[in-house]
Each structure stands twice: as C-alpha cells, then as structure tokens.
Amino acid sequence: MQQTSEPESNTSSLNGLPPEIVDAICCHLSFDGHALLRLGETSRSWRSVVSDAGLWKRLNAVRFGDHDVTPPPARPAAALPGWAFFPGMDSQGSDCARPEDAAGELSPTSLAARANQLAACAFNTNGWIKSRLTPIGRWVRFSYTPGEGLYVRQEVVLRGLGLPPRPPLPARAEPQATPPDIPGWLFYPLMESPGHDIRHPATGEDNFMSSCSSLEEVASVAAAWPGCVAFTTAGCLKSNVEPQVHWRYKGGGATSWAGLYMREGVVRERRMRPPPPQGTLCDPLLRYFQRGHRRLRAARDVDVTWLNGTYLARRPDPEPPQQAQQPVASAPVAAAEPGGHGAGGGDGGGGGGDRGGDTDDDDDSDSDFEYVDELGMYGPPGAVWLQRPEPPLRLVEAIPAAAAAGAAAAGMAGAAADAAGAQQVVALRSVCWLELNGRFEGVGPGRYRVSWWLRVAPDCDVADMEPLHLQVLLDAARPALGGSAAAAAVADLRPGALAALDVGRAELMAHAGRGWYEQPGGEFEVPRGAACDLVARLWNHSGDWKTGMMFREVALALLDAA
C-alpha cells in the first residue's frame, strides 16, 4: 500500500514566534482539537495556523499514527487460458479449498494453479475453490469491483452450464483506482455512512445486488427511489446519511475502488464538505474528528457481527436519553468547553444517560455543539445556520425539528423520518456468535474506564451457558510527544488485553426489565507520552442461541489525567 506524504505545516506565521515554540504548542494540543479550533477565533495569526491542512495532517500523525493509507487500485480481470470469467458472481457451496489454504497467494494465476491440482471446476477471487457449481440461476452477485468474480473452466461453461463461450478478456487490463463518475452524484472515496439502508422490496436485503448487474444500474435505481440520498459501491441505498464527522473510513479493504455516492443536491442543501481532490485520502481536519470519538453508538460506530436485520438489527431506542431543552434558532451560540468524558460526563462518567454538560461532539442527537466553518466542520443535516463575516469560525447547534422540516421541504421523506426519530440501537434477535467491537483511536495519557450501555429483557438467555465476556484490547501504541521517555513508555506496551471481566447470568439478570444500565467493561492506564489504539470487545461465542438484549453504546471515560 502506498502511503501519502505529509506536507509541511505553516506554523511559523503565529505573530513571529519561532516555529519550534508553535510546534510545541500544537503538539500538546494534539489530543484536544476542539481547543485548537477555538484558538482560531482569538486572532488572525491563530486562524492562519488552524487553517493549515498540513498542521492537521501532522496532528493526525502524532495522535493517530499513519494508519490511513490508500489501498491498491482495482485490477480488472485479464485473460487466463482455459478459464472464463463472470464479473461479480459466485456459486455458493461445494468448496474444496479455502482462502487460508492459499498461504496468501490469492492472485487469479495462483488460484487457477491450485484449482488444477485439485481438479476443481471453478474458483472465486476471494480464494474459494469449487468442486462443483450450482445452476447459474442460483448464483449470487457479491461485488461490483473490477476483477472480482468467478472463474469457471471453459468446458464447464459449455457442457456444465449450457452457456455459449464467454467473450475473451484482454491480455492486460489497466488498474482502476476509483469507480466511474456518475452525473448528479458526488463520489466520496473510501467513505461509508453507517445505517439508514433502504431494504430491497423483493428480498428484504440491505443491498440491491440481486437486481442490479452494475453500479450504473444501482445509480439508476437510487435516482428514481423516493427519499434516497446516497448509495454505496456495495449496492446499498441510503435514506439518510450521518453527519460527515461520523462517517467511517474503508481504507482497510483490498482495493481503493470503494466509497459513497451522494446526491449532488443534498450535498449542496446540507452544506456538506465536498469530496477531497483526486489523489488525496480525506480532508485532514475532518479526518481528525472522525477518528477521535470517545463514545461509540452500537448502531453506527461499532463493528457488530451478524448485524444484518435477521440475527441482530438496528431499531429506534425504546428509551432514548433525556435531551436538554433546545434554544431557539435565533439565540446566540456560546462556545463549548473542551470535550472528553471526565468524572462529570454523565451518569457514572460513561456518557449514556443525561449527559448535561458533555461537549465531546460525538453525538448529533444531543445538545452538543457542532463546529461549522470553511475549514471542514459543519452542522448535522438540516441544521440552522448562524453566520457572521468575522471571525469565520462558528459553532452551530442542531435543532431536531428544523432538521426534520428541512428534509421534508427538500422532498426527502426518508431523511425527514430519520431526523425526527429517535437514535438507533442494536437489538439482539437470535444469534450464536455474539460479538461487538468498538475501536477508540489515539487515546492519550491517563487512566480510563470503558462502559457498555445495555438493556436486558426478562427472557434474556445470553449468559445461560457461559458468561458475557468484556475486554479492552491494546491494538497499537506510539510515542505521542516525542522524547526518550515517551519511546520507553511505548516500548513496554504490547498488543493484548489491558482489562477483562466476565458478567454471569445472575449479575446480568439483576438488570432485566429495568431499562438501560451502565455495565463497566474494565479500567486501564495509558502511560505519559503514549497514544494508543484500543478495541472494546463484548462477546459470547457459546454454541447456544442467544436473545433478549439491546446495545446502545460503548463509552470511554477519563478517570484521571496523566
């Protein structure tokens, strides 16, 4: 994967102060981007610092490391002697070899050689080799990405499937970095807005791959579908999108041929940030705030295994957190205090109850403020805009009723319903493999507690066979502020469990039928000078079917600053 270069920061413009002093100030603010934005309102000199994209790239590198890399471009299928290619398709079952058997050799040439050894009739580009095929009418589409699909022996195409010979493929195909431009839509590369999926009317699936053979066909359906504001390269249609600060980066995929198409008029009406220039990953200021969340909604920000509407599903919160009274649209907006989850950040510090003065900017449905300016922050969809010519950095507060009215006026019925409705949670319907993973990036020095907000039904059987397991895992650590002490602190950190506890049936059922409660998930410490990427995991992999729980969020609370 090719890593992007980091431009130099123009920090020498701060009233003539030496660059090393400015750099030191910015370095110590790497964990508090909100404070840095507020400094931009104090003087033109600070504004010039805050306006510098290179500065935000540098802050991302200090706090989060160099994780955002561009995956390789998609490589369209090329001619493979003796094999025919079916783009995007797969025949399910009858596998005689798995991807793990390939020892990392997943190129079509390597897979074809392995299929020859096994006398197999087909293989897909994910590495599954087939001993037989289902009738072609039962095949499924799994991708629109160029080069992904199913290779079938030429003789099987004719004698097994009864199809005419497939057209020949080029001997060499040029890589494709991004999907095609589609009139009326703006493409955001490697971005995803979780949730708000429109279900297929015939299959109930959360994508339209079963009826659309190409991305252009998906675009045609999206353009004609009432209330559709976006669609993805995975064939998902969206009735609404989250504010951009809550979008998720898809850079961990196999190729760069992935992202989100937004309806051009919606981008304009909601004053969203435009797509980044071609060849760049993302607006660095926006990316900083996308990665810095300390409260993760289960339905939006957490990776939930089997969240497909059948085993686990998104649904409106039956008992939403109390919301502070919203001020009138014309009221002046006060500056927010520095964010974070301290001891006063809500009930138990976890951030899931009535959070009062919490200003961490993680949630657009509460009374928190959202930054808006030409640097890259914005209000949520349909927000009421407060403007002034000087200084340009402003804060705007979401007015839910105005959001719903604005969406309805734009003819977006689905978006209006989303704006007016309660926030969503994850409901456990019935599943064997229960696992939720919430990722906290760039966690600075201090002592923390992780908490899950759970709701237990009287018929809950999650912990009948084995306890519910909670873990906090260290995924990566890096020196945040430089110096030998920081390097030494990081040298002692190893990936693995920082905290773990089990919740048995008796403890879990003590909360049955009593609404949402805060379940501690463990305490841990990040040493001075370090920045850590953490995973909060909730899981139960016992073989019995589980039901009767809901999950609202996982929160990271700062107990003691280093």
From TrEMBL:
This is F-box domain-containing protein. Residues 11-59 form the F-box domain. Residues 322-338 have a biased composition (Low complexity). InterPro entries: F-box-like_dom_sf, F-box_dom, PP2-like. GO terms for biological process: SCF-dependent proteasomal ubiquitin-dependent protein catabolic process. Pfam families: F-box-like, PP2. Residues 313-373 are annotated as: Disordered. PROSITE patterns: FBOX. It comes from Gonium pectorale. Coiled coil: none annotated. Residues 359-373 have a biased composition (Acidic residues). Transmembrane segments: none annotated. PANTHER family: F-BOX ONLY PROTEIN 48 (PTHR12874:SF9), F-BOX ONLY PROTEIN 48-RELATED (PTHR12874).
